[in-house]
Amino acid sequence: MISPASDHLIVALDVPTVEEARRLVAVLEESVSFYKVGLELLFVGGLDLARDLRRAGKRVFLDMKLLDIGNTVERAVSNATELDVDFLTVHGHDLKTLRAAVAGRGDSRLKLLAVTVMTNLTADDLAEQGSTSTPADLVLRRAELAYKAGCDGVIASGQEAAGIRAATGPEFLIVTPGIRLQGSTTDDQERVMTPDHAIWSGANHVVVGRPITQADDPKAAALTFVHHIREALAKRGAGGTRPH
After folding, report:
1. Measured on CA atoms in the order 52, 228, 180, 90, is the torsion positive or negative?
2. Is-catalytic flag, 65?
3. For tag attachment on the chain, is the N or C end more exposed, with fewer CB atoms within 10 Å?
């Protein structure tokens, strides 16, 4: 039986082949109800995998990070609605692109998420790009653009979730990658946060890849994350104190 808390966990199928992704889904069984399919799988059958996951009753986050001229983005999003996935990402750099994505989505059930600042980037990385903003400031600015454009939510670090929630209100979706358990390796992520802190701070969903997909027992690892999410949701709903 799928736990309601499991819907807040998105497992990133960032693996080299569709076959490996399918094996992981089979191992995870009913412990996971929501999967991310991204660029790594796109050219080796990732869209077919997304369709199959939907047919199996799973929710699907298609992480394409679209960025192009408005007309191209609008048509790409319109085509994506035919896949019947739940979430689709578009880069949140400018209002024109975001509005084009919203126009392409139309009245479909697809939720559009704007990528704010990648969780592997620091202030030094942004400076190399010519930005004088801190990650937190730039994330908030882009979240406000996404909200203004009519997007359904954003991709952002849990470190920025509280500020986004305060600026956009309760209905705006916050999906948080860079999630790690306390004391675990951060891999190539920079602005990381535990699932407890991310959910407590206002995130709707947390995205977890390697800590589950590369675990000795992926199902047990997934259930551990679901446990942390369940406890954080309970504390948030009860107005509890911030996790330590």
Report:
1. positive
2. yes
3. N
pLDDT of res. 235: 82
The length of the chain in residues reads 244
Mean pLDDT of 119-133: 82
Radius of gyration for the chain, computed over Cα atoms and rounded to the nearest angstrom: 17
Q: Name the pTM for this structure.
A: 0.90
C-alpha dist (Å) from residue 60 to 57, 131, 178, 236: 9, 33, 19, 26
36, 58, 65, 96: which one is catalytic? 65
Report whether pLDDT(190) > 70: no
- Pick left, alpha or beta for residue 109 (phi over 0 → left; psi -120 to 50 → alpha; otherwise beta): alpha
Which residues are registered as beta bridge partners of 62?
Answer: 37, 88
Please name the residue that has the structure tokens 């080299």. 16
pLDDT beyond 70 at 100:
yes
pLDDT, tens digit (0-9, with 9 covering 90-100), for 42-60: 999 999 999 999 999 999 9
Which of 17-26, 50-59, 117-126, 202-211 shows the lowest mean pLDDT across its residues? 117-126
